[in-house]
Specification:
This protein is α/β, with parallel strands linked by helices and 249 residues long. The protein contains seven helices and seven strands. Strand 5, helix 5 and strand 6 form a beta-alpha-beta unit. It is globular.
Length: 249
């Protein structure tokens, strides 16, 4: 029995930050397979510096804490149809997030950089003629809803990004720009790979997931594509949890 949803983003201009691995790469690849013209960002100097094959994308080096670089990237687009704010990390430069400077660094990277880029791209997003309007999708985390004391800065940044999603949605409600978010749960990515070597940690986290397994980056990408499509033209300010039922517990 066929039960497959396929998207057509032919001619759609897409920007995915942090698109060189994990969820970001899956999102960028999904848009490219669907005909999108995809630009992705990474912190390294060139696409060849990554293990993944990035040849089908336009690559832009970007450090989200570099305000001038963020502004330059935003100014380089005269039209943009889809923005996916995925770039983010924890333990900035290997530091403890309970240190105030490290906490500030996380907010700068995960939150302030995304806000600066998004608002800087407003003219390009307003220039979109995409059916259903231009789309911004912010990538959150279950840390936006629960405490994870080892990464307080990461959780705070994702919770704030959730609030920013709703505020931007209302700010641009009459500008034909929709702003939504996807909140992944336990997804098999390089960021979560450390759990594979610590069975008790993995078992504890899986114990909180009713579906009983880790999700895949492609499962997150599908939700991002839906929110970016005309099928979601009446959805803005929403958060879609891709969490295996975690929030329902």
């Amino acid at each position: 029995m066929a039960n497959v949803c396929r998207f057509d983003f032919s001619g759609t201009r897409v920007l995915v930050t942090g698109g060189t691995s994990g969820i970001g790469h899956a999102v960028a690849s999904a848009f490219a397979r669907s005909g999108g013209e995809v630009t992705l960002t990474g912190t390294r100097s060139s696409p060849g510096a990554y293990d993944a094959d990035l040849s089908e994308f336009t690559f832009r080096q970007l450090e989200m804490r570099d305000a001038s670089a963020v502004d330059d990237l935003a100014g380089s687009f005269d039209r943009l149809d889809v923005l996916v704010n995925n770039a983010g990390t924890n333990f900035p430069d290997g530091r403890d997030e309970w240190e105030p400077d490290a906490f500030e660094a996380i907010l700068s990277l995960n939150l302030v950089g995304a806000m600066r880029l998004t608002t800087g791209l407003a003219p390009a997003l307003k220039a979109s003629s995409a059916h259903g309007g231009a789309s911004v999708v912010n990538i959150l985390s279950m840390g936006a809803f629960r405490s994870v004391p080892i990464v307080p800065g990461y959780c705070a940044s994702k919770a704030a990004l959730r609030s920013l999603t709703q505020n931007l949605a209302m700010r641009w409600i009459h500008d034909d720009i929709r702003v939504n978010a996807v909140a992944p749960g336990l997804i098999a990515t390089p960021m979560t790979s450390v759990m594979a070597s610590i069975p008790e940690m993995l078992d504890a986290e899986l114990g909180r997931v009713p579906l009983g397994r880790m999700g895949t980056p492609d499962e997150v990408a599908s939700s991002v594509q839906f929110l970016s499509s005309a099928a979601a033209s009446y959805i803005t300010g929403a958060v879609v949890a891709v969490d295996g039922g975690f929030l329902a517990m």
